[in-house]
Task: structure prediction
Amino acid sequence: MKKLAIFLLPLFFITTTNTVVLSQRGPVEIQWSGEYKEPRSSILTEFIGNDERYSYALRLGIGEGLLSKEGSIFVEKYNSKMKLVKTSEIKLIYKKKRLFFENIQMIGGQIYLFTSFRNKKKKMNFLFVQTINKKTLKLEKDIRVISSVPFRAQYNSGAFNLEFSRDSSKILVLGQLPYQAKAQEKYQIKVLDKSLNPIWNKEIQLPYDDQRFEIEQYRIDREGNVYLLGLIQKDLMRKKRNGKPTYQYTLLTYSQEGEKVKEYKINLKDKFITDLTFRIQKNGDPVCAGFYSDRNSFSIRGTYFFKINKSTGKVYNQGLKEFDFEFLTELMSERNKKRAEKAEKQNDEKKQVELYRYNLDKLILRSDGGAVLVAEQFFIKIETSQYRDIQGYWRTRTQRRYYYNDIIVVNINPKGEIDWASHIPKRQITLNDGGYFSSYAVAVTSKAIYFVFNDNPKNFGTDKKTNKIHSFNGTRSVVTLAEVKPNGSVTKYPLFSNREEGILTRPKVCKQNKKNEMIIYGEKLRKYKFAKVVFK
Result:
């Protein structure tokens, strides 16, 4: 098998090797920053980008215990040694009224802040853009309107969604027009260049009414063509009828400045599409991949893959493949595996094993035309219980339990066939926290794919006979590195102890910053620090 040669993730953070190497576990070196104190009522949410000398991070203000889209943001600047150079609070205020945070992006070396403003007098919702001075981290006085949609009411004010092409040369502003009951949904498409100047715009009406159609993903390519992936509901009351799915995916494309519209309906006959995503190849052809089930909309039996020729509209390299039995039962106990074997032999479709509740997170395009799918088991359980308060009255307590469990990695060759599929065992079960310290970060290199997540140290001594995986245990956890090699083999390494480093790592914030490096972010109370992981 050829080595995976796949596109790298965007550059988010530049560091150097001037810090002291404190750990060396497995195929990596770890270099730590100093410890910092975060601004009050804020949390770090993402790395914005970097230039030749500095890297920039974003913090959002917290209001009433929740992440708030309005109020303040904080922009931070770090030098190559990961030392905090400057931080600046930016008030989201326009004419003494609050703005809503929409996005922040580094484009062409400039940092742009996108905000929206609901003008009740004009009954319009405006999308603003403003430059942040990289030296002072203050807003420039160049605020301008780049889009607007009608404003009808507080809860029907339209909305903006932004998407950037892979090379950041084109920007899609998808404006959702106010809702009208039982009417076909309308959107405003605006395409901008990297200087935020308009290229084309068009108001579109989707071919389905709002109750039966929902846009799930939207993308733009380097030529300014727009793609909308949507889900059509044929029966609003149920997911299946007579054992068959009652919904269908469709891909809408808008080219030639919106004048040419095509629709590609995606159908697997009697099978249930349980997840679908797509990317745009360098040649402009959409690549679609996802999972399917034989019996419902929330489990998976196999994967499918196809490409669409953007010029002819023809589907090619189409493949549908069931996971093999060993993969489906790999993490089962011996007792459950024997039950599954019996169901397979009896061809009992209702009892045949499928994987439960996996979200397709990433579709990584390979340079040879293949792809790698990454999915994580994720679901929420809502639990209610009764209790007596101090006055003797019965009350109801509602709690949410968040499950972020195993990761699966599927390698698909250019013909649409599964070369291999691998499990990365993981258990993260938390209560009422939104999975703040759960999930994983991923880094892609020419030699392997690496996953970083919080883990229980007992899992490095797991009993292979029972396949028992111990759950993530808060501050007593270790940060684990899972290495997936080009042949699909998985090796796990303990990187460091969260307790020893005085932090709890947040995988959802960690990012690959360049070809062989990843930045890990951890915090505890109001203190935080970074680690640079260098892949050998």
